[in-house]
Amino acid sequence: MYDIIKAYILQILYTNEEAVNPQKLSVNKIIETVMRFGDIDNRQSGAFSQNTLQMNEGAAAHRKIQKAAGEDYNKEVTLKYEVEIDGTPVLIHGRADGVIIAPDGSITIDEIKTTTLPIAHLMGQQRQHQAQAKVYAYMYHKTFCSNTPKLDADSTPQINSQESITIQLTYYQIESEEIQYHKSSFTISEIEEFFDYLIQQYGLWLRLEREWKIVRNKSITELNFPFETYRKGQREMAVAVYRVVSAKKKLYACAPTGIGKTLSALFPSIKAVAEDKATKIFYLTAKTVTRAVAEDAIRLMANCGLRFKSITLRAKDKLCPHEGICNPDHCTNAHGHFDRINDAIMDIIKNEDLITPDTTQEYAKKHRVCPHEFALDASLWCDLVICDYNHVFDPVVYLRRFFGDDSGEYVLLIDEAHNLADRVRDMYTATLRKGGFSQILNQLRGRDPFTSTLRSALKQINEYMKQLREKLECDNHFTSGNQHLVHKEPDFEFDKLISAFIHAAGEWLGANKNTDISQNEFYAEILNQYFEASGYAMIAELYDNHFTTIVQLHGFDVSITQFCIDPSKIIAIALERGLSSILFSATLTPLDYYREVLGGSEDDFILSLPSPFDPSHLLTITHSGISTKYLDRESSYKPIARAIYDTTSHQRGNYLVFFPSYEYMHRVYNELNEIDPLSEYPDKSETPYHILLQQNEMTEDQRLEFLSKFDASNKKTLIGFAVLGGIFSEGIDLKGDRLIGSIIVSVGLPKLSLRQDQIRNFFDNKNGQGYDYAYVYPGMNKVLQAAGRVIRSETDTGLVLLIDNRFASAKYRSLFPGHWTNMIVIRDISQINKNIQQFWK
What is the share, in percent, of the chain residues with pLDDT greater than 90? Predict the structure, then answer.
């Protein structure tokens, strides 16, 4: 009886709050949910998705059309209308492109659509466009009723008593300036009937959402922390997360391995959802393995009674069986996808709480829909979205369906946040090469005359980049193989040429949309170059003093790069898509540095927690007698090999050794095989240890096989050679005796490069810490990640050996984590042997 009463009270509270604060709902969302039909066909839309340049051109075209429409045209009319949908008060909002009030009082609602493709491509969406305008017509009629004054404040108001409203669809081709008008007249009763139908259909979804929230919130209210006690530091982090979410702020947290940071971030955020402090949680990470950890945390809480719908998104190429060729001629799922998608969403949402990629595939197969688009649509009805960084930060693929007109109060939980700056920097760096354009230009010779516009655009780009190449080749100031120019301003002339190519290529691709992409390499080449150019144009629209332009020679080829030096501003803007952001990692050190480069300010909170593990379980040794600087490397291979041999000889087990490069790794490997004590083993397979070498470009299966060799029951010592900052230096979890030691060679500085030097110069000018920001801090993060592979639980025991005399300096020692209290600095091999023998006793 108590549970029934409690559920009833929760329902009353929920309903009362909705009555006071009606749910906001955009016209676009209603139309996109109810009015979808037909096929997925990226030959008509998806393959030519609008970039920032095209969107800006579209906005300019809107203004041009509106300005030319005359004094009876009222532009950008904001409309709001409150209605009850299936018992839920809803405030529907939208903005009509134009409302035309003729002298006779007749009303026309204008909906403008612009395109860089032929106008015919818009006709497939005419039904949705008309539906959107009809909803605006209904809202306009209900808002002003029979008393509809002109909206121009300088004009004399006229009263209208219309019995019908005209819907006008204005289609405009940006390049050719072709314009088409499609008019239809509807009676008020027809518009009302249509609106009632939409509301009835959308009411099914609102009812599903409302009933689910009652169940969800009840389970959250009753949910206790899933363990009897908190780990050391875990409660402190959970409390900090809850307070920051409640205050709608940002938190930057260094939370060492073992705290249980995933649960510490999720549990308080889920509690905040039940208290209406947030509407949805995004758990963002760079790695698949970390997404699995988030799933495990939700599964753990579900076993304790939590009802919370979560979905894990994967990249399209991981789900799509047709390599991204999304059209009904190649994919049966694409054919009629939108006719079946709502049934598929309703099915999975009603029957599943934890939606993994495998679950998505299962339901997609059942309903014959595209699994990738299905997952994205289903995520709209989930409470937690587990996904990659790019779903929030990437300029092309970020989830616009969430971060648009109906943007909610979202919590962004960003795991492994030390990776975010470099990932965003890559997302907002764009490079174009002359070779890509000239190759297409060569293939256009002898083709039909329709390619003349495309050929002209390519010729101009080719000639411009040829001139850049000649300038670099003739400049004796540059050394061979390293010719480059750096500009602090964008190349406006090149940007115009790229814009012309985008228009020409888009027109050509649109005209050849029925081409069999999988069989036509030429079409695929133009499509790929179109995408690359569009990405470049998008970055050009964002270009400011956080970017620089780099022109480089590559043999006979030349490239132009818009390089994102400092991604902090971009990250800060993206974080505003959530009401609160929690950025955390085991190696967010130093915190002030990460707060700055990750879009924070001094007003944002920072938190540094101690390791929960007994520091006596970890032996940390710094070998200061070896230099790994570039000029000293030749003389370092032999002593490093000896240090590895001695370190691994005292305790049988599994070890990882991390090197700054593959070349360095192979040189030390050769030296290790020549050490004198091994001469008694003519057959190397009989040696007391086995060595594994990381290979370049390993497949997923090869990675798993490499890690599977780290078995606690190995009869011989296993030494894995890997690259620092690579796939085995972070994100792997070898608990217990699967790994008992890490040996780290060098301080991990990024390779000297033109781009890193641009970062250095930028921060030298900004705060005088350019070298640290470009080299020291990123390098030390690699070291800390590699060292963190050793102790993964309370019972683990192991050692970390750091080989480089720079580790003994004050600068680097200040960056060591607080739990390295047993750090020992040695200078020769005998000291290694003595300390290791004592540790393993």
Answer: 66
pLDDT in the model for residue 39: 81
Cα–Cα distance measured from residue 73 to residue 66, given in angstroms and rounded to the nearest whole number? 7
Are the CB atoms for 74 and 97 separated by under 8 Å?
A: no
> How far, in Å, CA of 434 to CA of 600, rounded?
38
- With DSSP H G I counted as helix, E B as strand and the rest as coil, what are the percentages for the chain, rounded to 5? 50, 20, 35
Mean pLDDT of the chain: 87
- Average pLDDT of 765-781? 97
| Chain Cα centroid distance, residue 805 | 38
Element (H, E) at 262: helix 261-274
Instruction: Locate 477 and state its tokens.
Output: 């100031």
DSSP element (H, E) containing 180: strand 179-187
pLDDT for residue 817:
92
Greater model confidence, 669 or 38: 669
Distance (Å, whole) CA 637 – CA 666 = 10
Q: Residue 366, SS3?
A: helix
Do residues 425 and 353 touch, judged by C-beta distance below 8 A? Answer: no
Please give the sequence-ordered ranges of beta strands (E in DSSP) within 420-566, or none if there are none.
430-433, 484-487, 547-554, 557-564
Helix H or strand E encompassing 187: strand 179-187
| φ, ψ dihedrals at 178, nearest 5° | -65, 140
Angstrom distance (rounded) from CA 256 to CA 139: 54
Q: Architecture of domain 2-203 in CATH?
A: Alpha-Beta Complex (3.90)
Quote the pLDDT of residue 740: 96
Specify whether the CB–CB gap between 625 and 826 falls below 8 A: yes
Judging by DSSP bridges, how do beta strands 410-414 and 280-285 pair with one another? parallel
Taking the C-alpha atoms of residue 175 and residue 596, their distance in angstroms, rounded to an integer, is 42
Radius of gyration of the chain (CA): 31
Report residue 427: phi and psi, to 5°. Answer: -60, -30
| Cα distance between residue 483 and residue 473, in whole Å | 8
Tokens of 154: 């300088």
pLDDT at position 130 is 94
Tell me the pLDDT tens digit for each residue of 174-225. Answer: 878 889 999 999 999 999 999 999 999 999 999 999 999 999 999 999 999 9
Tell me the pLDDT tens digit for each residue of 445-488: 766 666 788 999 999 999 999 999 988 888 654 444 458 899 89
Distance CA 575, CA 550 (A): 28
Tell which residue, 554, 581, 613, has the closest CA to residue 819.
Answer: 613
According to DSSP, the β-strands at 484-487 and 547-554 are: antiparallel
Q: DSSP of 688-703, one letter per residue?
A: SEEEEEPPTT--HHHH
The dihedrals phi and psi of 226, each to the nearest 5 degrees, come to -70, 0
Distance of CA 639 to the CA centre of its chain: 43
Helix, strand, or coil (residue 480) = coil
What average pLDDT does the segment 58-82 reach? Answer: 86
- Cα torsion 211, 214, 215, 219 to 10°: value is 170
The answer to whether 500 and 458 have CB atoms below 8 angstroms apart is: no
Does 637 score more than 90 pLDDT? yes
347: buried, middle or exposed (CB in 10 Å: 19+, 13-18, 0-12)?
middle
The residue type of 457 is: A
CATH code of the region 615-839: 3.40.50.300
Residue 274 banded pLDDT, cuts 50, 70, 90 = very high
Distance, C-alpha 274 to centroid of its chain: 27
Q: How confident is the model at residue 161 (pLDDT cuts 50, 70, 90)?
A: low
Choice among 67-76, 126-135, 246-255, 426-435 with the minimum mean pLDDT = 67-76
Q: Is the preceding omega at residue 226 within 30 degrees of 0, hence cis?
A: no
Residue 56, helix vs strand vs coil: helix
- Write down the domain spans for the chain: 2-203, 279-408, 452-564, 615-839
